[in-house]
Design brief:
Radius of gyration: 22 Å
Number of strands: 0
Oligomer: single chain
Order of helices and strands: HHHHHH
């Protein structure tokens, strides 16, 4: 009886439209999470490029080298995927068709940034990681401009 009454009441009340990054009603968007993940991609790429393989014949050193190399690669790939996920949330959930008037290159910017995430996952390429950071910075600027604010671009590293 109570369930039926609540169901009838819920159907009678219109639900307000909710917009948010997680398909929930929080409405919280921020490109900072993409920036942190992209910074990790750049950091791991630099660390990988700086590694030197041990001399042959030292099995323990080779095992340690391989373990560290593998961990850095795994982190780089995971953070590149996180960057892509965060950017796609902004692109598909936050930015609306109205924003295209202000940012006519919006779709191209996000598409290229997502492609850079993929390139950073499958390569150890510092230039691509730096391009990704530049793309995330551009998106940061677009995002805050769309909110009528100009938050400074600040990196952790």
């Amino acid at each position: 009886m109570l369930r039926s009454a609540l169901s009838t009441l819920a159907c009678a009340l219109p639900a307000p439209v909710a917009e948010a990054h997680c398909d929930g009603p929080c409405g919280v968007y921020d490109p900072a999470s993409a920036r942190v993940a992209a910074e990790a991609v750049l950091s791991m790429t630099k660390k990988l490029k700086a590694m030197e393989a041990p001399a042959s014949g030292d099995a323990a050193a080779l095992a340690a080298y391989n373990n560290t190399f593998g961990r850095y690669v795994a982190i780089k790939e995971e953070e590149a995927q996180k960057t892509k996920k965060e950017l796609l949330i902004l692109w598909t959930d936050y930015f609306k068709p109205d924003h295209l008037a202000t940012f006519p290159d919006l779709h191209d910017t996000f598409w290229k940034a997502a492609k850079l995430c993929s390139a950073c996952k499958v390569n150890i390429d510092q230039a691509k990681a730096e391009e990704l950071m530049a793309a995330v910075e551009k998106i940061h600027g677009m995002f805050w401009q769309s909110k009528g604010r100009s938050d400074a671009w600040v990196t952790a590293s």
